[in-house]
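quick q for whoever's on today - can somebody do inverse folding on this one?? i tried earlier but teh output was garbage lol. tokens:
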């Protein structure tokens, strides 16, 4: 049987082009006994709805030189000595290589080299792991932008004043370079009175007071369990 290449647009085996050009072409059967590898060969071949048979082959033009290995296999020891220069070497396709060169098809269908596509995200579990890592990276980015642990109270006050999502009714006062006061005022008879306040000290510790009484720290440890961060 005359071998013919099953690749899309390939003429190997159909004419004498290779012989006239001096190109030595070998033919390699689809690995039908290895379903995973065979599926890779089918996907690599840009031939729509192609189903290989036991006679289907791809020619060596669709593989990279690195996909092959030359091995001498001869049981005749005398002949091996006579042709010690490698004349009896045969070129074999490596077991785990996939065709990747299809010059007679559009470039977007041919992969002539480069890094193989990662298969790490194929499974649902891998996709979930990848998404979880992306969310974690995003959260870390947000946290790094909102980190105030390195600020003094003055730039902290400036950042608070620039915020657009603060609750209404709060007044932000820089009492001194070491104290920031955030408070709500109650005005009675044109006289302002502090109704509730949050005092932030230079070490970013917090003191909360309501109606002139200091709240125990235990009342808001679920919100702030120490210095502001």
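ok took a stab at it. sequence:
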């Amino acid at each position: 049987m005359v071998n013919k290449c099953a690749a899309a647009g390939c003429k190997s085996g159909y004419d004498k082009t290779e012989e006239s050009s001096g190109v030595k072409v070998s033919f390699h059967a689809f690995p039908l006994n290895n379903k995973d590898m065979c599926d890779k060969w089918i996907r690599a071949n840009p031939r729509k709805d192609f189903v290989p048979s036991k006679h289907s082959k791809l020619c060596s033009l669709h593989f990279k030189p690195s996909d092959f290995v030359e091995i001498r296999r001869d049981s005749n020891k005398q002949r091996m000595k006579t042709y010690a220069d490698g004349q009896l070497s045969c070129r074999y396709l490596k077991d785990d290589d996939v065709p990747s060169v299809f010059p007679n098809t559009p470039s977007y269908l041919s992969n002539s080299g480069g890094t193989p596509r990662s298969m790490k995200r194929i499974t649902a579990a891998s996709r979930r792991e990848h998404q979880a890592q992306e969310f974690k990276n995003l959260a870390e980015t947000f946290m790094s932008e909102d980190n105030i642990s390195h600020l003094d109270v003055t730039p902290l006050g400036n950042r608070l004043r620039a915020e657009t999502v603060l609750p209404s009714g709060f007044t932000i006062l820089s009492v001194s370079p070491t104290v920031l006061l955030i408070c709500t005022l109650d005005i009675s008879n044109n006289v302002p009175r502090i109704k509730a306040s949050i005092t932030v000290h230079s070490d970013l510790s917090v003191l909360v007071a309501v109606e002139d009484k200091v709240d125990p720290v235990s009342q808001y440890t679920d919100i702030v369990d120490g210095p502001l961060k």
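fwiw Residues 153-219 form one domain. also The two ends are 77 Å apart (CA to CA). so keep that in mind when u check it
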